[in-house]
Amino acid sequence: MSTVLMKNQAYDLDRLALKTNGISGQKLMGEAGKKIADFINSNFSDINSISIVVGKGNNGGDGFAAAIYLNKCGFSIAVFSIYSTQYFSNETSYYYKECLKENISVIFDSDPPSVYDFNSLVIDSMLGIGFKGELYENLKNWATWINRFSVVVSCDIPTGVCSDSGTVCTKAVNADYTIAMGFPKIGSLLEPGKSYSGTIRSVDIGFPNKINELNGQKWNVITDDLIRNILQPLKKNTHKYKQGKVLILAGSEGMTGAAYLATMGALRSGCGLTKTFAPKSLNIVYERKITEGMTVSCEDKGSGFFTNDNYNQIMDNIDWADSVLIGPGLGRNKDTVRLLHNLYVEIDKPMVVDADGFSPFYNDFSLLKKIKNDFVFTPHIGELSKLFDIDAEEFKMDMINIFEKMTSNMPGVLVAKNDSTIISDGINGYINSTGNPGLATAGTGDVLSGVIASLISQGYNSLESSIVSTFIHGLAADNQSNNISQRGLIASDLLIEIGKILSGYEL
Prior knowledge:
Shape: elongated
Number of strands: 18
Strand content: 15-25%
CATH class of the largest domain: Alpha Beta
Number of domains: 2
Helix content: 25-40%
Structural class: alpha/beta
Strand order of the largest sheet: 1-9-18-17-16-15-14-13-10-11-12
Radius of gyration: 26 Å
């Protein structure tokens, strides 16, 4: 697990450094410059000349400080300042003057040179974490100029990437490496900002250990180490009745595959038993596909979907289950939606709600407060926007801030499926580090919901189950995309791969 920061949290950490530890901004800036220089000297010692493009704020000061240390390492340094000295912050002004003392070339120009040797390394220190929106034209020109270099290193976050949302302006710096001061900024972990940040290297510049004192949700990247801390090997004396029982309400005419994928996702991730409910007219399809799980036929009078007449039969089986999965492929028939509404207020077992399972909440979000037990919601961004009545584009522009507001008053765990899946229980937030565009195909979400429900049935809490499932699901996609291709990936490819991945956590 690796901590990541929102913009305001990064500012708070700066203030705490001065207030509680007496560490000045000038000292932090000097350490930032040294760590940038150490990284370049360790990895690019064969490069002779280095260009540094600096802005007027603290990000620019980091660039000036880096110039001093790189100069001492023997590199030929050229610093390009976009602004005149009158606009420099106090700390930036200090390190600019230190550069002059070291006879480092500082060139003041609002426009980049038209002719230059780009077969070298450039440091982007124009703008820091305060940026959002669009760059001024001259900054766009500099960003374009920077992107022509063989190696691009950005300080803290690439210029043109919003540090909170990961949104990117029309001409942003496309870094090969981003040197994150203290901790990565969350925008570097969210697409498209993630693609513009390259390889992220976090460096310790002397911040105090005050993460728990920062305002807002605590955000982390899900890593393999975190998964290993959560998952436990199977007990030697376990059996199918102790290994977890999952009740699944999924599928309808034309979408029986959703029920199959959700069920197999649950079985491949270790639950002992599944009971998958099926409309009677489709039960033969369920039985042929779901050979390792049980099916329960529900009278549908040939309709191919569940109705409220199935309520008693479903509720009679709830006590059997350790977890309940509702939603994949159910369809949005009015009678099915009525059934779901009635089930949600009565089921007293941990639930995973996905896809068509959200239908009752679109018109009655207060229903959420009536759920009796722990639950996980797994919407994609479109469903999430509809649930909370927020424009999808607006949501993408300020994703994390909006997400925090959503989850602060929401019981349960929210798993927002996106380019980088986000998980939160309202207190702690997690960003998944696995997965690729190959997951943008029908049925992959059904597999994920099955895995989450399976882990809950095995005794893991909702947050733990969501973290582990999302990571393993994404890793399965990564592995299979290497074997097949991202374009060629289909949901069923994930099933065996999930089982293989879990073997690495059973030692």
